[in-house]
Amino acid sequence: MGEQLSFWQFSFDVVIPRLFEGMGITLKLTLISGFLGLFWGLLLALVRISRSKIIRSLGLIYVTIFRGTPLLLQILFVYFAVPPLFNITLDSFPAGVLALSLNAGAYFAEIFRAAIESIPKGQMEAARALGMSYSKSMRRIIIPQTYKRLIPPVVNELAALTKDTSLVSVIALAELLYTTQRLGAKYLRPWEVYFWAAISYLILVVGLTVLAGHLERKLEMRGGV
Q1: HSE-up of 52 (CA within 13 Å, CB side)?
Q2: Which candidate, 30, 25, 20, 22, places its Cα nearest to that of 162?
Q3: CATH 1.10.565.10 is the classification of domain 2-221
């Protein structure tokens, strides 16, 4: 039936409605994994700059493992190995979120660490001289100064994460790429399907970039560092 429709009919009647469903799952994966990855990455960054050599080493090992092994392998490990290891049931969506969050956290950790270490050490010394604890100094003095510096690399990582969500198609999660593959196989019109899939990913990534530019301008107007 698909081969009898024109390009535009096939696109608007068949492809785009289905891809919107997959795009919604891709967006959910990106937002949830991005949020959890940011939170986990900040904790890891604090571990990486800890004054304890043992704690710093543990953070370095984690970052090295997750940055040094393929994300596809991590997704497969979480989906197939974690459930029997911990005697739990893990569906494809939470497995995808977990794997993407753990991986993104390793990259965000290095982004946060670099931003924190770019703040002059005198800022921390001045805060401590005023009687603030280390954690309070980080929370109120150091980390707020990193916001503007964090936006470009964080957005780049979120854009990469958006594209990396395509890898969860290997565990049969019906995100954008999985839906695209199924449509292409069903109707035997792959170029139209993959064309619209590429446009969909482009929309998501450009949307993130525009949002980042808006946030950066707002920080500049407020006199952000």
Answers
A1: 6
A2: 30
A3: no
